[in-house]
Structure formats: structure tokens, C-alpha cells
Amino acid sequence: MDELFELRIPHSAEAEQAVIGSMLIDSACIPDVLNIARSDDFYLELNRDIFDTIYNMYIYGRTVDPVTVLDQMRVRGVLRENSQSYLLELMQVTPTAANVMKYVEILREQTLMRSLLKVGTEITEMVREGAGEADTMLEAAERKIYALRQGRTVGGLMKISNIIQNVYNQISENAASDNTIPGLPTGLVDLDDAILGLNKGDLVLIASRPGMGKTSIALNIALHVAKAAKKTVAVFSLEMSREQLALRLLAGESLVDSQKLLTGRLSPAEWQRLGTAASVISETDIMIDDNPSLSVAEMNSQCRRLDNLGLVVIDYLQLMQSAGNGRSYAGENRTQAVSEMSRMMKIMAKELNVPVVCLSQLSRANETRTNKRPVLSDLRESGAIEQDADIVIGLYREGYYDRECANPNEAEAIILKNRHGELKTIPLIWLPEYTSYVSAERHHSEDEY
Predict the structure, then answer these.
(1) Which of 239, 398, 410, 441 is an active site residue?
(2) CA 248/CA 277 separation, integer angstroms
(3) Inter-axis angle of helices 100-129 and 13-25, nearest 10
(4) Bridge-partner residues for 207, per DSSP?
(5) Cα–Cα distance between 132 and 68 in angstroms, integer?
(6) SS3 of 351, please?
(7) Which of 12, 146, 170, 381 could form an SS bridge with 304, CB 3.0 to 4.6 Å?
(8) For this structure, is 14 an active site residue?
(9) Which pLDDT belongs to residue 203?
């Protein structure tokens, strides 16, 4: 009966043996295998134990051959009576290590089949038990299927060895990359250095008083990610229309005064710059939804269907519908709603495995202080927002409060919370005619020419 059950679970004993046999025959293939294969790809426990042993040996730079592997299996307490003969058998049944990546593909295919079987069973049980409303169950089912597409699992305990393997592979990828930061570049160099770019799974909050330019800086970042990283960027605008956002993107990219763009009275040189900017922006994969009544669940559902998603931008938090059901809160319950939504956004960032940049308004509290620079407690209906966010950036311009000040266009991106490093203030320059922010260093170096 056990053997019959074993046959029903998708797996390939031959492929598992061939992968391990290849690593024993030719240790040069081990890095390529470990880059793709995981411990869970080995369904049979004996094969999984051998793979885990080889993985640990490779990390510590030890020589991998049948003798050393046997010794390490003894040290790790997974040595069996037949382990020695089994290792020799694996090497004999593997004709060559040249096809090892084909064997790994078979393993990954079988792992996906097992995961699909598990998720299908979970969805069936959920429906049979009637766990919640149909929409709730559909959302849960979509989440599970999406996680499979991304090669991940939803929930469940995972062995630390598997987690370490994932982290180790990520560090190796970062080391081999030409990028100086692990995350996506914002285009503001000093800011990137401080927050290490926009990292997968991070919720990044950009907060300011109305009219300070938070939409502008978010669009700057969105366009830079779309151009530099060649990623799809999803922008959810709950305040401005698609056309208004496109106009701002054109002004910033063409360096043509936005007021002139509205009138259409442009010089031939400006028309040329506008045409070039329109072409550049059109070639990016920026997707915009300006539905003002979207919930986080609806945004998440749309994003799951996007290929090559790199970044999600939400403008802005206080205009959003509550997380799952479109309820509207008033008065003191509004704090509860915002807390619910910020939690859902953090979950969305983790599930989609992309950074989510959300804009937020600051309360009037800072305007009563002599020093009007924002602090964390200025976040409207804060509480959970500052807990859920990985990075919080407050925008400040002295010229916003005093137009007669010496440098009205000098701005600051104040990092109020940073899970990746220190809190610091990044100098920026606000270009009001182009509704755009640029790095202060870059702006000054351009002025010198």
C-alpha cells in the first residue's frame, strides 16, 4: 500500500540519482546544480541527505568525492549501512555529468507537480469546508497558484538549511553582478547608497505635505526603474489621471516646462526633445491604473498577472479603499483602516517579491513646530504604517514654507526609518518647471559645464 502511494506522488528516482551521481563524478558541475536545485527537489530522503551533505561541503570549500561525502554523512548523522554501496551505484548508473542540467530540469518539473498536487488538495479542502466567502477563497487560491509560478510556497515551515541556501545563492548573484547595490536603482545616487536601492519584498513609504512633490519623485523612480532595469512598473494613481501622470513624465524626461506642454506653445528644439522623450517613455513597460476606488487586494490581483514585474507604486495611501472589502471608515476607525491597508501592502510586497513604493500624506503637526522637517510621528493615522514600512522617507523643502528663502529649490529626502542602514538626510534639487527631483550632486556638476 505504501509503495502504491509512493507511485502517486510525482517524482523521478532516476533523475535524483543522476544529479547526485554527476556531482560525485565531476565536482565542477556542483555550482551550476546548486544555483537551481534545492533540497526539496529530492523526494527520496536518502537522496536528499546526500544532496544536503554535498551542499554544506561546497559552501565550506571542502573537496567533494565519494570518500569525503561518506565521512561528512557520518559527521552529520545521516550515514546508513548501505550508503557506501549506494554512492558507488550512483556513479555507475550515471553515464556522464555532461547532461546534469537536463536531470535538474526533470527534478524541478517533478517538484512543481508535487506542489501543484498539494495546492490543489488545499484548495479543494478549503472549498469543501466553506472557509469564508467565495471572493475570499478565490483570493487565497490565486495567492497559492501565483506563489507556485514564482517558485515559492505560501506559508509552512521551512528548514533553515534551505533558507541559508537561498540566501547564499542571492549573495553569490550579487557578488557576480556589476551593480553596486543589491536593489533596483531609484536614479538618485545618494539615496540608493543609503537604502541600497529598492529591494524585493520591501515596503517603501514616501511621505510629505500636499504639494511637496511626492508624486513627482515617485514617477522619477518609476521611470528610472523601467528604463535602467527593463522591468514592468505598475503605477496605481488614486488621485491623478493617467494623462496627468503621462504629462509629468514627459516634462521630466524632455526637460520642457510643464506649463508650456499644457499650452503647446513650444519651440522647434522643444518639440524635438518632446518627441525623443515620448519615444523613450513609450518603449518602457510602465502600466498605469487611475481607478480611484481600488483596494489593496484588487491591486495585488492585477500585479499577479504581470510578467517581469519589478516595482509597484501607489499614490497615495490615504485615498485607498480598505484592504479587502471596500468598506469606508470614518473618524477614529480610519486609523484602523489605514493600519489594515499598510499591513496588506507589506504582505503584497512579500508575496509579489518586489518593492512596493507607497506615497503618504503627513499630518499638519510639523507646521506647528519651528523646525518643520518631518518626523515619523507626523504620518497621518500612523501607528502600523511606521511598523510595516521597511523604509520611510520624508520630503522637505524650505521653499515650500518660505518662498523668499535663499534657496527655495533645495530639498531634502530625510530617511526616517531604514532597515538596511543608517538614518540620514539626502540633499536633492527640486525642478518645479519640470516637476522633477534630481540628485544635488548631479545637478551641481551639470551647472559647472
Answers:
(1) 239
(2) 11
(3) 140
(4) 360, 394
(5) 54
(6) helix
(7) 146
(8) no
(9) 92
Residues 94-108, buried b or exposed e (16+ Cβ, 10 A)? Answer: beebeebbebbebbe
5-14 long-range contacts (CB < 8 A, ≥24 apart) are 9/43, 9/114, 9/117, 10/110, 10/113, 10/114, 10/117, 11/43, 11/44, 11/110, 11/114, 12/106, 12/107, 12/110, 13/43, 13/44, 13/47
- Let me know how long the chain is: 449
Backbone region of residue 308 per phi and psi (left: phi > 0; alpha: psi in -120 to 50; beta: other values): left
Residue 366 C-beta-side C-alpha neighbours within 13 Å: 24
Structural Rg of the chain based on CA atoms = 27
Beta-strand pair 425-431/410-418: antiparallel
Distance CA 42, CA 15 (A): 9
pLDDT of residue 445: 46
Those residues with Cβ within 8 angstroms of residue 185's Cβ, 6 or more apart along the chain or in another chain: 179, 192, 197, 198, 224, 225, 228, 229
Q: What is the pLDDT of residue 233?
A: 92
Q: Find out whether the peptide bond into 58 is cis, omega within 30 degrees of 0.
A: no
Which residues make Cβ contacts (< 8 Å) with residue 57, sequence separation at least 6? Answer: 63, 64, 68, 69, 72
Please give the Cα distance from 179 to 183 (Å, whole number).
Answer: 9
Q: Cell for 137?
A: 477563497
Q: Tell me, what's the pLDDT at 442?
A: 53
d(CA 333, CA 86): 64
Residue 288, φ and ψ in degrees, nearest 5: -125, 130
For the chain, the helix, strand and coil percentages under 3-state DSSP, each to the nearest 5: 55, 15, 30
- What is residue 356's predicted lDDT score, i.e. its pLDDT? 93
In which residue ranges of the chain is pLDDT below 70? 1-7, 131, 149-158, 162, 176-179, 321-334, 366-367, 380-384, 441-449
SS3 294: coil
Residue 347: all three cell numbers together: 504582505
Residue 178 has a pLDDT of 66
Using CA atoms, how far residue 49 sits from 76, 78, 83, 102, in Å, is 9, 7, 10, 21
Place of cell 528548514: 159
